[in-house]
Design a protein that fits this description.
The protein is an alpha/beta fold. Helix content is 49%, strand content 15%. The protein is built from 12 helices and 12 strands. The protein has a 4-stranded parallel β-sheet, covered by helices on one side. It has a 3-stranded antiparallel β-sheet with strand order 2-1-6. Strand 1 and strand 2 form a beta hairpin. Helix 2 runs antiparallel to helix 8. It is globular and about 65 Å long. The termini are far apart.
Length: 304
């Protein structure tokens, strides 16, 4: 007899097979037209990668990968378990010399940890993560195939790209697949932008600060890589009415206990900078004192 997990894996294989079957019944002409629509939608939605300052549309695979709701629930449970364990590493690092010897930070980074970790962080430690993994959802042994390969505990990529690509699939690909198999009922996942905003609003409430101005801090003037912070700022402004700014750490200033960007107070910062990166630009002459202040005041997502 099959276990419930094995039955679920076979059900996942059945759904994936139906999707692939419907996809392969699309004519070559219609498939070419669909792929061109995906490319145009990618450009329109700014699903791009910067290469030496030039915009290049990211290639989106036209055949969707499928996962069942129960499989999503299991992945969510396992990921949160790992995420919460990783969040405890700071306390373990500070309290246990054996842990410190294994996870030794460079002296300059360790100094930031000692200076910026406070009792307030123990009570409320805002970490928005993305934990990369591989899994075969179509295997009867799908649970056993799960392998985590990298934890990302801050400055995660894809906040704009992932929901934009899913919406492209929903608008362009799903209708074509349903013309080939009317019983297919496909949906997209939760919008990661909404998950981040929920974390931000809850953390600001815990700090007793109103959500007025949020600042995305990343290598603003880099000529290569994923380019999505401006899109995020526009999305949050249009949806929530928030003042959302986009800054490089060197552009922040400080007046008293408040950190400002272009003269406006920053209530909370979302960072795409590791401490090692901040140390590098400090060596180049940038003033990163305001970033240290935000960390100490527990006003950075993700925290120190």
């Amino acid at each position: 007899m099959l276990t419930p997990a094995e039955e679920l894996g076979l059900a996942g294989m059945n759904v994936a097979s139906r999707v692939r079957g419907a996809f392969h019944r699309i004519s070559n002409a219609d498939l070419a037209g669909m792929i061109e629509k995906i490319r145009l939608e990618s450009l329109a939605r700014h699903v791009i990668y910067l290469r030496d300052g030039k915009q290049d549309a990211i290639n989106v695979m036209a055949c969707p990968l499928t996962v069942l709701p129960d499989q999503v629930a299991y992945i969510h449970y396992v990921t949160l378990t790992i995420h919460n364990a990783l969040k405890r590493l700071v306390e373990l690092y500070m309290q246990d010399f054996a842990v410190r010897d294994i996870l030794r930070l460079p002296p300059e980074e360790e100094q930031w940890l000692w200076e910026c970790w406070t009792p307030a962080h123990r009570e409320n430690n805002p970490v928005f993560g993305r934990h990369d993994a591989v899994i075969d959802f179509t295997s009867p042994m799908w649970k056993d195939s799960l392998r985590f390969v990298e934890p990302n505990m801050g400055g995660i990529g894809g906040l704009h790209l992932v929901p934009s690509v899913e919406q492209i699939m929903q608008g362009v690909v799903f209708p074509v697949l349903q013309t080939q198999d009317s019983r297919l009922q496909l949906d997209i996942g939760p919008d990661i932008r909404e998950l981040l905003m929920q974390e931000i609003l809850e953390h600001l409430e815990s700090l007793g600060r109103k959500a007025k101005a949020i600042c995305f801090i990343d290598p603003k003037y880099a000529g290569s890589g994923i380019d999505e912070q401006e899109d995020l700022a526009r999305y949050y402004h249009e949806r929530y009415g928030l003042r959302v700014m986009h800054a490089d750490p060197a552009e922040l200033t400080q007046q008293g206990n408040e950190v400002l960007y272009n003269g406006e107070v920053v209530d909370l910062a979302y960072r795409d900078y590791a401490v090692s990166d901040l140390l590098d630009i400090e060596k180049e002459g940038a003033n990163i004192g305001p970033m240290r202040t935000l960390f100490r005041q527990n006003r950075v997502m993700s925290s120190i």
